[in-house]
Amino acid sequence: MVSTSGLSAVRKGAALKHVYVTGHRNPDLDSIASAIGYAELKQKLHPGDTYAPARLGDPNPQTEWALKKSGARAPKFVPHIMLRVKDVMNQDVITSNWNDPIRDAGLAMARRGISQIPIVDDRGVLVGIITERDLARMYIRESREPSTFAHSPVSVSSIVSVLEGELAAGGDQQVAGRLWVTAMSLESMGKAMGSGDIVVVGDRPEAQLRALELGISVLVITNGAHPEREVVERAKEQGASVVRSPLDSYVTSRMIQLAVPCRTVMSEDPLTVGPEELISDITDQVMEVHYRGAVAVDSGNRPIGIVTRTDLVNPEPRRVLLVDHAERGQSIPGVDQAHIEEILDHHHIGDIQTKVPVAATFDPVGSTSTLVMERFRLHGIEPERSTAMMLLAAILSDTVILNSPTTTDRDRKVVRHLEEMLGVDAEEFGREMFEESSDVSRLSAEKLISRDSKTYQLASGDEICIAQVETVGTALLERKDELLRALEEARRSSGYLLYALMITDIAEQGTKLLLAGDAAPVEKAFNTKMKDNVIDLPGVMSRKKQVAPKLI
Known about the structure:
Blueprint: E1 2-4, E2 7-10, E3 18-22, H1 29-45, E4 50-55, H2 61-70, E5 76-77, H3 85-88, E6 93-97, H4 102-112, E7 116-120, E8 126-131, H5 132-144, E9 154-155, H6 156-163, E10 166-169, E11 174-175, E12 179-181, H7 186-189, E13 198-201, H8 205-213, E14 218-221, H9 229-238, E15 241-244, H10 249-257, E16 267-268, E17 272-273, H11 279-288, E18 293-297, E19 303-308, E20 319-323, E21 339-345, E22 359-362, H12 368-378, H13 385-398, H14 409-422, H15 426-437, H16 445-450, E23 453-457, E24 463-471, H17 480-494, E25 498-505, E26 510-517, H18 520-526, E27 534-538, H19 543-551
Helix pairs in contact: 1-12, 1-13, 2-13, 2-15, 8-9, 12-13, 13-14, 13-15
InterPro entries: CBS_dom, CBS_dom_sf, DDH_dom, DHH_sf, DHHA2, DHHA2_dom_sf, DRTGG, Ser_kin/Pase_Hpr-like_N_sf
GO molecular function: inorganic diphosphate phosphatase activity; metal ion binding
Protein name: inorganic diphosphatase
C-alpha cells in the first residue's frame, strides 16, 4: 500500500498463468501422486508460470501413508474451478481517505479513467464510495442553491491544497459558513456577509478590509495578488485566515467547493463482495447498483479490489490440467467452465468436452504415475526424492505391487528405475504400504463406499458408481449387511442405476463384489451367480480393466 497526498493504491504485478493440476474426486494414491509429480515437472519446464497440485477430496489411508513416508506435502484442497471474484477483480485499486478533499478523489478518477473510488477511514476500513453520479449531484445542487458549508465544514488546509495556493496569514481551522465571490459595493457587502463566511476577492484592499470587518473566517485573494500589511494585521487581530490563490476568482470559488471532505459526498454502504465469492452469485447485484461495480474486501473490510460490469463480460476462465481421469462426473466441479490445459490419463476416454483443442493422452499402462515418470525421463529431469517416492507408491498401489492384469512392461521399467534412484526394494516397499494402510475396521460404512469411488456414464445416460477397498483377509465381509444398506441408500440418493463395492484381497488376489441395484445384468456380465448378496470374482484385481468395462 503506497500513500500519496491521501490517496493509496494496491499495485498488481505482472499476471502469470496459474494452472491447477488435479486428479479425480475421492482421490486414490495415483490421483494425488500424479498431480504432485506432473505439477513439479510442468513447473520445471515452464518456470514463468505456476502449476499447483490440487486435490478434490481427503487423502485415503494409502495416500496418507505415502505422504508421511515420502515427506511430500499434500496438495491444496480445491472445491471447484468456477470463477471467483479474485479471479476477475482489478487489484490496482485506488482509495481515498474520508477526510481528503473530494478534488483529490475526482482527479484520481479522471487520471485512471474510472467511475468510482472507495473511501476508507483512518484505519483503511471501507466506509463509502464516491461515484461520478455523486460528483454530478453535488455540482447540480451547488448551481441551484447558495454555496454553503453548513452541512459539510471545510478546513483552511484543504482550501490551500485544492487551490495549490499559500496561507498568507492565520492558521488552519474548520469553516461552516457561506462562500462569496465579491462583485458588489462595500455597502452591499454588509447586507450579506457575516461571521464564519469565506470571501473570494481580487486585488481590492478596501473590499478585503471590509470583509474582515464583517467577521468573516477566511479571505481568499485571487490572481496571485499579495495582501497588504494592513490586511494581514487585521486578519491576525480577528483570528481570520488569509489565503493566496493563483487562480482567477471564478475558478477559485469552484475549486473551494471541491475542498469539502469525501465523507460529506460519498455514498454509504457500497456493494461489497468477498474474494472467494463466485462471480455467478454476484453478477445480478453488480448490475443492479447504479455504478455497476462492487468493492472486494478482505476479512477486515479493507478494499483489495474492484469488480465492474466490464470485468464480468467474457472473463478469462481458470485453468486446469487433468490427471488420472477424463470423466466429467469424476472431475472438479465447474470443469465445463474452465480452460483445460491438458489431460493425462491411463483410463478410457471419458466425456470431458473442451472448447478448444487440447493435448490429451490416454495411454494403457497400469498407473498415471508411470506416464508422469516417463515424461520426467523424456526431458532428462529427475523428480525430487519425495515426489519420486510418491510416484513409486502410486504405481505399486494401482498395479497391486505389479500383480494386477493392468501391469505393463513400462510400469515394471519405471519401478526398476525408481528402485535404483531411491535405494529401496519395491516389493518390500509395496507390502509395507498395503499392510500399514489396509486396516479399515474403524471407518464407517458410508466412508468405506465413498472414499475411492468412481462414477461412470452409460450410453443410456444413466450413471453407475464403482467403489473399491483393498484389504487383507475377510474381516470386512463380516460387515456385509451394513455395507449393503449404505450402498442402497447412496444409490437411491444419488440416482445411480447401480452402486458396486469391490472388496479386493491383495493377498488372495481376488475380489468380492457387493451390489445395490439389479444384480441380473452383473451376473450375466461375469457369467456367475450371486451368493448371499456377494459375487465372487477370483483373480479380479482391477476396477479399470476387469470390472468397469463389463458393467459399462
